[in-house]
Amino acid sequence: MTKISTSLTINSKTFTGKQLIEFCSAGLVAAKKDSPEYNLHSFIMNWISDEPAITVKTSGSTGKPKEIVLSKKSMTESAKLTGDFLRLKKGDRTLLCLPVDFIAGKMMVVRAFVLGLNLAPVPPAANPLKNIDRSFGFAAMTPMQVHNTLECDDGYEKLNKIEKLIIGGGDISGKLLQKIQKLKNKTYHTYGMTETVTHIALKRLNGITPDAIFKALQSVTFEQDERECLVISAPHISNKNIVTNDIVNLKNETEFHFIGRFDNVINTGGIKIFPEVAEKKLSGIINSRFIIAGVPDEKLGEKVVLIVETKNHDKDRFEKIISNSSLSKYEKPKEILFIETFPETENGKIDRRRLLLGY
Questions:
Q1: Taken in order 161, 165, 170, 173, is the CA torsion positive or negative?
Q2: pLDDT tens sequence across 260-306
Q3: Where are the domains of the chain?
Q4: Most buried of 140, 222, 237, 312, CB within 10 angstroms?
């Protein structure tokens, strides 16, 4: 059995063994149940317990949320691989601004345990750096958190104080990517899921030579199935391959370009359209949240539609945007639909499955 570290540094104070138990026990008593503080202390207690595994829940962005059991051994090995890839150092101040309800937040805590990082927890928020003015060696954020930070006057200054930043949990729009490329730190986009114990591949988004493709962590390799979907070999997680529903352009056994979700592919009159590709072409010119999707059509099988989250049903304006865009004739929506509020998964992603149930 893998030896689990029971020493953790939080806000520059190191707790070991019994001290950590006492610290978390007091925290559980003082914190409101299900608050970020409560969940953090609860997870730490779970991690240092004798149980060999952790139960985590998926986000529900690609299907019904479910619980998955992950071994502490695989989580420990995942933390080591990330540390090696990013060259994280013991004592690096590490911002925790993700909820520990999900795997991304849990793994930030595990990395602090395994790598000896100095964990700095703050309440998860849309703009986690709003009231923070300090430097960090490492942080993980969602695209929304990065976007909201960069909307502030001092956004670039604050993000540049994070030496190594990883962004995961969703797609990065073309407009946001342009802003990220102006950052002077080292920023990466991650690829992974709960089943892979968070990310198993990363790509550098900024610097002199940003990456166009995802690169595997050490010991991870890739292949494709007959659907052209990614199949992952990750010995630190499982001795069985992990089959995904992500269509990719495989460069070699350790590098790939993400195309889109197999579940989301639109077959319109025999032509396959990848919504994620079309959405990137519109991401810089539509300010509201939106998705490209396929809905049943008697003639085409499926027709391409644009669904926009807005109270302003100005169809003419959006038709003009589509007309002037770089969308191919097959990608251009046949209909524009409006909804005031998109349904969301528990961790804030657009719930495509629920959204399309009514069409």
A1: positive
A2: 999 999 999 999 999 999 999 998 888 889 999 999 998 899 999 99
A3: 7-216, 265-356
A4: 140
